[in-house]
Amino acid sequence: MGIVSVFETTASRALGGRAAGLADGATAVQVAQKVGQPTGSCIYFAVDFKATPEFTTGVYGSHAVVEAVRAAGACSRFWQTRAWSYGKHSAAAHIYQYDCGP
Length: 102
Hints:
Rv2525c-like_Glyco_Hydro-like; DUF1906 domain-containing protein; GH
């Protein structure tokens, strides 16, 4: 038997947008550290309601993130940042962010 952690504030919190996600992510990390969760282990985030297929799912991240999520079949849209991609460009990327700031 294994133990996993799942973070949830309210059932429909996933509808709260970016600000809610950032706040929950920060809180989840603080709680995980407080209870001694091993570094590198997974924190699951609950979407605890009947989500509808009205929207597609996408991920933003490096080449490695895009490729891993694509291989897992977890998303249908991909936005790749140049940062941390080490010159690699995923053929799956729908958006490629060339500039990462000033």
